[in-house]
Design goal:
This protein is mainly alpha-helical. It has 12 helices and no strands.
Length: about 290
C-alpha cells in the first residue's frame, strides 16, 4: 500500500512539474507569436466576411437564395469555435472543423454557380440529389472568373486540394494522426500541453483555409459586389492581412479598370508587392 501511495505522489509531482513548465512555455515569445498569428488570421477573416455580408445586404433576395452567402454566419461561428478550441489545446478537433469549412464552402459555390439564378429551394434539391459528397472533384468546375491568370487558377486548385487533404488526415483515424500522437506522448506532450510549433502549424493551415473561403465567398457575391468591397473597403487597408494573399490580390487586381484607380495603378501595384506574404509569415504577426 505504501508503494502505491508513493507511486501516486510521484505521478502527481510529475504532473505538477509538467503543468508549471507548460505555463512558462505559454508565456514564451515563440508561443505568443504563434498565438498572435492565430488571432490575426481569425479576426481578419471575420472582418472580411462581415464586410462582404454587409455589401451583399444591398441585394437581399440574391443573398438569401445563395447557399454560399447564407452560410456566412456559420463561417463566423466556426472561426470563433476553432480559435477557442485551439487556445484550450484541441488541435485535432480544430483541424476537423477546418476540413468541414473548406469542403462545404467549395460545394456551396459549385451549386450557386450551377444554378446562378435558382431559388434556395431549387439549390437545396440540387445539393441533395446531384452533388456527390464523397470527394472534392467539383473544385475543377468552380469558375474563378476574377482570377484571370490560368497558372494562378491552377495553383489555387492545387493548394486547395493540399489544404483539404491535410485537414482530412484528422477527420477519420489515420496512420499520420496515430503516429503524431505517439510521438507527442514520447515527448511528454499530452492533450492541453500543445507546443508553439503545433499552434504555428495549424494557424498557417487556417490562413490557407480562410483565404480559400474568402475567394469562394467573393465569387459567390458577384463581380459588382466584390468590386465595391475590394476597392472601397478592403484593399485600402494595409492592416487587413489577407490583402497579402496572392489570390485575393489577384481578385483586387481584377478591378484596376475602375476609373478611381486609373491614375494610381503603379502605386497600387507597388503596395500589393509590399503586402505579399513571404513564406506564409504574415507580416503583421511580427509587429
Amino acid at each position: 500500500m505504501d508503494n502505491i501511495h508513493e507511486f501516486l505522489e510521484k505521478m502527481e509531482k510529475a504532473r505538477e512539474d509538467k503543468l508549471a513548465e507548460h505555463k512558462q512555455h505559454l508565456s514564451s515569445e515563440e508561443y505568443q507569436s504563434a498565438l498572435n498569428l492565430l488571432n490575426v488570421v481569425t479576426s481578419d477573416f471575420i472582418k472580411g466576411m462581415k464586410a462582404c455580408s454587409m455589401y451583399c445586404s444591398r441585394g437581399a433576395e440574391f443573398r438569401d437564395n445563395s447557399l454560399s452567402l447564407s452560410h456566412i454566419d456559420d463561417y463566423f461561428m466556426s472561426a470563433i469555435m476553432i480559435m477557442t478550441i485551439l487556445k484550450e489545446g484541441g488541435i485535432n478537433p480544430a483541424k476537423r472543423e477546418i476540413r468541414y469549412l473548406i469542403d462545404s464552402s467549395m460545394r456551396y459555390l459549385y451549386v450557386d454557380q450551377q444554378l446562378w439564378r435558382g431559388s434556395i429551394e431549387e439549390k437545396l434539391v440540387f445539393f441533395d440529389k446531384k452533388v456527390d459528397k464523397s470527394n472534392i472533384k467539383y473544385i475543377k468546375d468552380i469558375d474563378l472568373h476574377m482570377i484571370k491568370s490560368p497558372d494562378l487558377k491552377s495553383e489555387f486548385t492545387s493548394e486547395y486540394k493540399s489544404t483539404y487533404y491535410k485537414a482530412c488526415e484528422y477527420v477519420h483515424a489515420s496512420t499520420k494522426q496515430i503516429e503524431e500522437r505517439f510521438a507527442l506522448y514520447e515527448q511528454g506532450i499530452t492533450i492541453g500541453l500543445d507546443r508553439a510549433e503545433q499552434l504555428q502549424e495549424v494557424a498557417e493551415l487556417l490562413s490557407e483555409a480562410y483565404s480559400s473561403l474568402l475567394v469562394f465567398t467573393f465569387h459567390a457575391a458577384g463581380v459588382s459586389t466584390a468590386g465595391d468591397l475590394m476597392v472601397d473597403t478592403l484593399s485600402p487597408h494595409d492592416n487587413w492581412v489577407y490583402n497579402g494573399n496572392k489570390y485575393l490580390a489577384e481578385i483586387d487586381r481584377h478591378f484596376d479598370y475602375k476609373h478611381e484607380r486609373k491614375e494610381f495603378l503603379s502605386e497600387i501595384e507597388a503596395i500589393r508587392i509590399n503586402r505579399a506574404w513571404p513564406n506564409k509569415a504574415l507580416q503583421r504577426t511580427s509587429h
